[in-house]
């Protein structure tokens, strides 16, 4: 029997949820350590408890979060951990991390130019640095460095400006010469005759990669241990509304009422918002990735090129993990197609000619929630008790810890955290966009 905490009371005047005292008594997960490993070896590892429960959904919660990707699970974890609110359900239509969380290329970084992005993503990177210890679950954060290649003097100027802005915000950044790039990434074609000549690069040494599934699993385990109900194979098919409030979600496993609702459904944001009766400035596009057969270690840095729109790293299993741009048309189809594969492979060979004999092994796609300025929306919706976490474009994996942190704060207090105060929905109407790339209101150029 697992302990079910009491629903917290709601302070009607401030719309804050008051933490349940029961929080302190929530279930504790087995601590993973050398000692628990040794103890379980004695029983041939057959007695490890389930990492999280699979409870039947209750009819009512204080908070329901729709979407069991990294963002929804992280929000549930921080609602419990930071705000003592454990009467929470995370509703997922498929399996945990089966959306973009388990489909991304795992790059984490905070190399942003504009202040709201820089502060938000740096908070995320700081959380990444301590996440395995915090969750007692190895998320395999590997700060192996992320290099943005400069292919022209204009690129170098832009990177110097971005690097300086990062340093002014206390974020590590290093402008590399061509020789320094070549020394760090020996297989990169840095010759003057290269198809895309390399003039240098911007390095963020603390950037790198993390294991995507582990992030979903680690947050799920931590949230479950604190009493959160994680409900998989449960699709939200409708939202019941009373005036300007949502009263319940209709799901394939019945109607579930709550006092507050959070949406963290990535590429399905527009679809679920329509159930609530409003439109979002979000378009859904497919982003694809592919991996090669496993190789011995050949690439120990994440390399990206804006000029060819291509990025590549090597996973711990040895596969070269790569991707390019989104498809130029809207789609909910979570699959890949030949033109995108061709583009990525062409780019790879232009930058790394010696990879031309490598065979590709797997390819897939995920549906991205592309916003009109390339920055996310974390905050209040037009409805009183519905909160939004969307618009992650193709960079939301690295945001997972800070997004969960800020989304939980916003839901708990009915007001944003300082770090997500700028990421409002109404910024588009007010002309206060956060246009990191200066691309204008066109999702496909961000
Ligand atoms: C190929 C690819 C490469 C990428 N590379 C990177 C990268 O290197 N670095 C980076 O930072 N980001 C990257 N991203 C982006 C990143 O993966 C996403 O921004 C991030 O994972 C979004 O997390 P999420 O929790 O919001 O969404 P998801 O993980 O997609 O979770 C949303 C969940 O909501 C569920 N859902 C949807 N509708 C409903 C419903 N009606 N009822 C119940 N549940 C519902 C879905 O099943 C899904 O599990 C990449 C994405 C892709 C596809």
Q: According to CATH, what is the topology of one domain? A: D-Amino Acid Oxidase, Chain A, domain 2
What separation lies between the terminal Cα atoms?
49 Å
- Please state the overall shape, judged from the principal axes of the Cα atoms: globular
Question: What is the CATH C-level name of one domain?
Answer: Alpha Beta
Q: What amount of the residues lies in strands?
A: 25-35%
Question: Would you count the extended β strands for me?
Answer: 20
* Bound small molecules, deduplicated: flavin-adenine dinucleotide
Spatial extent as radius of gyration: 22 Å
Mean pLDDT, nearest integer?
A: 93
CATH architecture of one domain: 2-Layer Sandwich
> Which runs of at least 5 residues are low in confidence (pLDDT < 50)?
1-10, 21-25
SS field, number of helical segments: 10
Class by helix and strand content? alpha+beta
Please characterize this protein's 3D structure.
The chain has a domain at 143-208 and 283-370: D-Amino Acid Oxidase, Chain A, domain 2. The protein is 27% helix and 26% strand. The protein has helices spanning 34-41, 70-83, 115-135, 153-168, 178-184, 212-225, 269-276, 338-351, 400-413, 427-430, and strands spanning 10-11, 16-17, 60-66, 88-91, 107-108, 146-150, 174-177, 200-204, 208-209, 229-231, 236-242, 245-251, 254-263, 282-294, 302-305, 310-314, 319-330, 360-371, 377-380, 386-390. The longest helix has 21 residues, at 115-135. It has 446 residues and is α+β, with helices and mostly antiparallel strands. The radius of gyration is 22 Å and the shape is globular. The structure holds flavin-adenine dinucleotide.
């Amino acid at each position: 029997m697992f302990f079910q905490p009491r629903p917290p009371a709601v302070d009607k005047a401030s719309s804050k949820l008051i933490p349940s005292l029961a929080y302190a008594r929530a279930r504790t997960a087995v601590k993973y350590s050398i000692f628990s490993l040794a103890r379980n070896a004695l029983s041939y590892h057959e007695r490890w408890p389930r990492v999280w429960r699979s409870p039947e959904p209750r009819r009512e919660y204080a908070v329901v979060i729709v979407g069991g990707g990294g963002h929804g699970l992280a929000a549930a974890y921080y609602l419990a951990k930071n705000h003592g609110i454990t009467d929470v359900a995370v509703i997922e239509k498929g399996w945990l991390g089966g959306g973009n969380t388990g489909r991304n290329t795992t790059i984490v970084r905070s190399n942003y130019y504009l202040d709201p992005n820089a502060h938000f993503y740096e908070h995320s990177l700081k959380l990444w640095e301590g996440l395995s210890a915090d969750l007692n679950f190895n998320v395999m954060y590997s700060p192996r460095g992320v290099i943005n290649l400069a292919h022209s003097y204009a690129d170098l100027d832009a990177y110097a400006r971005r690097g300086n802005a990062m340093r002014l915000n206390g974020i590590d950044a290093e402008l590399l010469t061509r020789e320094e790039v070549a020394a760090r990434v020996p297989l990169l074609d840095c010759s003057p005759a290269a198809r895309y000549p390399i003039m240098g690069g911007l390095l963020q040494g603390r950037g790198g990669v993390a294991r995507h599934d582990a992030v979903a699993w680690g947050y799920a385990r931590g949230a479950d241990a604190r009493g959160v109900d994680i409900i998989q194979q449960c699709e939200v098919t409708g939202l019941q509304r009373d005036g300007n409030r949502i009263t319940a979600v209709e799901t394939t496993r019945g109607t579930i009422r709550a006092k507050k609702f959070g949406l963290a459904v990535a590429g399905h944001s527009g679809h679920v918002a329509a159930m609530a009766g409003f439109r979002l400035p979000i378009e859904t596009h497919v982003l694809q990735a592919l991996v090669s057969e496993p190789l011995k270690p050949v690439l120990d840095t994440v390399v990206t090129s804006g000029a060819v729109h291509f990025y590549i790293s090597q996973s711990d299993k040895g596969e070269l993990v790569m991707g390019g741009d989104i498809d130029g048309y809207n789609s909910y189809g979570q699959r890949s197609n030949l033109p995108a594969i061709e583009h990525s492979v062409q780019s790879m060979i232009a930058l790394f000619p010696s990879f031309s004999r490598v065979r590709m092994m797997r390819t897939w796609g995920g549906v991205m929630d592309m916003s009109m300025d390339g920055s996310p929306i974390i905050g209040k919706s037009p409805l009183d008790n519905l909160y939004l976490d969307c618009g992650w474009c193709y960079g939301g994996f690295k945001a997972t810890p800070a997004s969960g942190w800020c989304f939980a704060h916003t839901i708990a207090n009915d007001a944003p955290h300082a770090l997500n105060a700028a990421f409002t929905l109404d910024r588009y109407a007010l002309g206060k966009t956060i246009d990191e790339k200066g691309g204008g209101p066109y999702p496909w150029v961000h």
